[in-house]
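Input.
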Amino acid sequence: MCLSEDEHINHDKTQPREVNYKKFIGERQYMIPFKSRISQPFQEGQTIHAVGMIKPDAKRIDINFHKGAGKDVDLPLHLSIRFDEGKMVYNSYVNGIWGSNEQRLKNLFKPNTEMDIRIRIINNKYQACICISSNSNEIFANRVEVGTFEQRIPLDGVDHVSISGDLVNLRLFHYGGRVFPIPYTAVAEVIPGRRLDISLFPTGKRFNINLYNSNRQYALQTSVRFNEGTVVRNAMENNAWGREEREGALPIVKGE
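Output.
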């Protein structure tokens, strides 16, 4: 879970707050090809998140983890999104040699749509998930897992990440997070201009996300109920629960 102040919120009270709204915290315009040194080593439970617009005539987009800044360094992860082949290809590059076991999966991305991909490091594997858009403006709530890849060489020494290929732009690159215990509680000052980003893998009948004060007065409870097929919202006033709000669909799928 990430709690960050959204620097892009419009603070001019004479203007609608949505004027400078950003879907993701930390959005900006990055140059393509993109290569960045990571400030801290990757750790178990972290997620690498990238968002950009795919060119209409796209052929390939490559995502690489580098051990060093040079041109011929080891690549523990090479993920190639290939529109010309209709495949997503995973491999590694060690001592100047590509791995013989090239893993090839169906490419679910489409040209002229948004690329939203997350690579999670968990259980000595890379778990790749994407959000699929039906057009350039719509993103479904759920991420689709496209593949899980074995870590063939240790992550120790990975200090750069690169993204290159047929992107119009890259507007988000972020990595972080960890695996939190469940149930999880954090002390955080939630004020206007901040938001919560939560990534989870839901199971069972329901899960709740609660915002409350030191007196356990719930300002908001969001209860995702798979057994009822709805998302229930409620709040407390004077130690009493208010009227439940149940309108709307259930955009979250159990197990995704």
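The chain is about 0% helix and 45% strand.
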